[in-house]
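Problem: given the chain below (456 residues), write out its structure.
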Amino acid sequence: MGATPLAMLGLDRVVGRLSAITAHDCFDGRHGGVYVPRTLPVRAFATPLEVGQALLGCDEVVDRLRLRPGKIALLAADEESERLAAGFGHSLALAPVAARRRIAAVTELVHLARDAGVHALPAVTGHAASYQDLLLLARGLGTDLLVESLDRPGEEAVPIVSLADWAAHERRLAAANLRVTRRIDGPGFTLVAVVGGAGTIVSPLVACVRRVPDVAPGGSVALVSDVAANLDAELVAELRAAAVRLGERFASEGFEGLVELDLAVDRRGGGPTLTAIRPDGSLATILDTVSAVGADELPALALHLAAHLGADLEEDVRRFVERPPDSAREPWSLMLLEDAGDDPESVTEAPASGIWRRDPSAHGGVGYVRSATDWKAVSAEDDEAFYLRIARAGSVRQAGTEVGVVVSRGQALDAGGQASESTLQWARGILKNFWTTPAPADALPEGSPIPGVAVL
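Solution.
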């Protein structure tokens, strides 16, 4: 259950009787496993938590779920979410809120990591309307900072070391709930793990996130790529070992299920350093599903659901532990496309969900080929990609609005960690297939949130 069906794409191939209830119809009714309530109030959602609670509180959704036993999967929930689900006889496929909150608390991060034998950096959370506010918030951490928006889970944290750095990202960060830590001089990676009674399963995925601003006029892109095959096998083993130790520590807190771990490696030496814990998942979890299903393996999200449905994962734990260290999956990439224009715009025409192909003669260099409801229909060559539409004709978008997601074969990042030209071609091409006009003055009431979606 969420804003879009992105989390279930491919997952429905390995999890039986799975259906999605979403706030946005990305397929124009063509996906039989996606239900979009007609009576859900049209509004802007700033976070995955807001989306989930709006759906859980929708009478149409409640009436539908009362007739269907099962568990509800959300990627973000709190006590109110649990109360709403319990009100119509359902429970959430998540660890208890108290356990999730404890392992995600910045005040506990260093303590939990130390117990697991993993180095961690202290962090603070809060808001900053200016660079001076940021320095006050980060007092004691220094001025070489790494800043992440907690409202957009899994987004690349940005280095802020000067007023100029803050100015470059102010529009995105000033209104957000921030997580701030000291910057490490070295690459950062995201690992996806599933904590269970039989042990901790760590996905082979080693995700890296990069943001490319102004990739096209009025558009930016956040890239998520599996870089495991590019890394030294010893480093990958160190990252996975740290994730296993952390998972065992989380289990002692009563946590069970999926968790994302952000780990950084200092160029000056030393082992992996834990920089963030996310029990809510993000685009890295979605990329794990894409890669795993493409390799005929069970993704972490499927194992998470199995754990909360009472399945015995002992055999799965053994299989992942015994996995050869050099058995990387075929690389896939995700691209989250965002509006980056200065003024609100009304979308008059939007690219459709489905398979797109590189075509020099088409507008933007890419053309719509055929309808599809997930990325599995992409050809074995790198000339096709799957696009999931978020912003549709009639919607209003402004800076920060998520407009769509591209799934493609191959790595989005080159050996140097920079966005590949092939990837940027997809982002530019899809963004150029949006047609917009200036939004009417009353389209965005003063003080209204960004009219986009929390994509998960």
